[in-house]
Amino acid sequence: MHFRVAVAEYLPFLNLEIQNGTVIMTGPVAEAFELLANRVNFTYTLQRAENDIWGIKGSNGWTGMLGMVSRNEVDFALGPFTLTYDRWSEFKLSAPMYVDDVEILVPVFTWRLSLFNMLAIFDYKVWIVLFLSIILLCLMLSIIEKCDNPDVPFQMSCLKNLWSFTRTLLQKGKLQRPEGYTRTLLTVIWMVSAFVMSLMFSGLVLTNLLLRKARKIDSIQDLIADGNIQPIVEFQSSIYSAFRRPLRKNEIRPRNKLGSMA
Q1: For the segment 162-190, what is each residue's pLDDT rounded down to a tens digit?
Q2: CA distances (Å), 86 to each of 22, 100, 166, in order?
Q3: Where is the signal peptide (predicted)?
């Protein structure tokens, strides 16, 4: 028996060369196929697929090696082929020798330290609440002082209280003990709040320095949502055909974001 076999280069498993117009293959796949030919006792002629592609189903039929099989240009094609629904529906596939998972490979996340990394420890809402709390406490204490002593300038009282609360927030101590129970209570509440905020901030800074947040890509949806990654797949491969298939209901197509390598 003699067979016409479609092949495509698949390094390092299958290497193809042209010698005197004849396709010569080497590599582990070639050795396994040669062993099969000797045991079953058949001869073969190799035909290389254009652009070394496996093939997908398009508007004009199948391309690549599968197109050669579909047009009866060859008797069968030498894989490995990934099993897809379209291929299983239209071609007779041999039993799989092994199963390999399809994975998404992304570049290593690079972390850069800047001033804004420190500000990003807290959400902007936390910084807004912190700022408004200082302003509110300054106004409350200034109004209380103005009621107790009308001769004290309101603007100077606000600036003094602002400076005092800022020193407390930065853990620089307090200049003097406040007078009156109300002012003492407000000052103590602020000191405790500032102490808790400082502990949380220092802990989160240490966590971000030691345990850096890495980008997490676990699905096609994560890949689409990340605007800094350009997906690249092999041209007219099984994954390429999966991205081009008709959409299901409520499904997102990544085709517009897709790049391909020949």
Answers
A1: 888 777 777 676 556 666 677 778 777 87
A2: 32, 19, 68
A3: none
